[in-house]
């Protein structure tokens, strides 16, 4: 009951989302696009959307995290380098902190995940130091490292970020890009993390996703209640 009240307060707090709910109704509400390749399910009716592949990494606390850690979670992902001193890297951190702050009330269901693109430099202690330096709430925001091949495979094939390779000496991911992933591991948006307007869009899209799941849950409850009353 408490969570339902919080969601209703959330919808009332953000008129744009509440407007979507009111004007489209439960059966026909607006939802975000899906990104990546899609194919027809064996039943010939449903669509199978691109999804994030299984993975296992280590976070700033030395704990193993995986794709299962983010099951039934909405999360925002980016790639980063603890040693980067570029202006845009600083902007991305600031915008990720803004996402963290805006959804602090929903920290159980909205998460942030930053993967290093320089695992040879970004050890677990380095990640811990970095997370403290940027004032991250590590209950919500995880910084992770792991096998370099896996990290770059995830960037290219799971999160659909362009990976640039310069022989064997340097690798780079589009680390200014943020990726919005839904509870079913589908990509629902890409954003320039150094652009305030695009992050405003990200904040709105997270609200829409929350509303989308809320309405889906309400539809399921309505169906169950109808079956019980039949």
Question: What key attributes describe this structure?
Answer:
230 residues, alpha+beta, Glutaredoxin, 7-stranded mixed beta sheet, two-stranded antiparallel ribbon, 6 helices, 40% helix, globular
Run of helices and strands: HHEEEEEHEHEHEEEEH
CATH T-level topology: Glutaredoxin
Rg (CA only): 19 Å
Can you tell me the CATH class?
Alpha Beta
- Classified in CATH, the superfamily is Glutaredoxin
Euclidean distance between termini CA atoms: 25 Å
Weakly predicted, low-confidence segments: 18-24, 166-170
Largest sheet composition: 7 strands, mixed
Largest sheet strand order: 4-3-7-6-5-10-11
Proper CATH architecture: 3-Layer(aba) Sandwich
What amount of the residues lies in strands? 15-25%
Question: How many beta-strand runs?
Answer: 11
Mean pLDDT: 84
Can you walk me through this structure?
The structure is a single chain. With 230 residues, the protein is of the alpha+beta class. It has helices at 2-13, 15-24, 87-102, 124-133, 148-158, 196-229, and strands at 38-40, 47-49, 56-59, 64-66, 74-80, 110-116, 141-145, 163-166, 170-173, 177-181, 187-192. The chain has one domain (47-210): Glutaredoxin (3-Layer(aba) Sandwich). The protein has a seven-stranded mixed beta sheet, with helices on both faces. A two-stranded antiparallel sheet has the order 1-2. It has a two-stranded antiparallel ribbon with strand order 8-9. Helix 2 crosses helix 6. The model is unreliable at 18-24 and 166-170 (pLDDT under 50).
């Amino acid at each position: 009951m408490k969570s339902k009240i919080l969601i209703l307060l959330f919808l009332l707090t953000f008129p744009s989302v509440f407007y979507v709910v009111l004007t489209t109704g439960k059966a026909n509400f607006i939802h975000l696009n899906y990104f990546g390749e899609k194919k027809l399910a064996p039943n010939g009716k449903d669509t199978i959307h691109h999804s994030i592949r299984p993975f296992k990494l280590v976070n700033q606390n030395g704990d193993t995290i995986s794709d299962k850690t983010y099951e039934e979670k909405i999360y925002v992902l980016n790639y980063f380098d603890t040693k980067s001193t570029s202006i845009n890297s600083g902007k991305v951190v600031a915008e990720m902190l803004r996402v963290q702050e805006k959804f602090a009330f929903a920290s159980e269901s909205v998460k942030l995940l930053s993967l290093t693109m320089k695992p040879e430099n970004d050890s677990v202690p380095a990640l811990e130091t970095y997370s403290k330096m940027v004032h991250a709430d590590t209950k919500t925001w995880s910084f992770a490292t792991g096998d370099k091949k896996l990290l770059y495979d995830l960037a290219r094939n799971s999160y659909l970020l362009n990976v640039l390779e310069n022989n064997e000496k340097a690798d780079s991911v589009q680390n200014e890009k943020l990726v919005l992933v839904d509870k079913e591991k589908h990509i629902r948006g890409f954003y320039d993390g150094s652009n305030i307007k695009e992050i405003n869009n990200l904040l709105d899209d997270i609200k829409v996703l929350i509303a989308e799941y809320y309405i889906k849950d309400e539809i399921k409850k309505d169906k169950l209640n109808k079956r019980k009353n039949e």
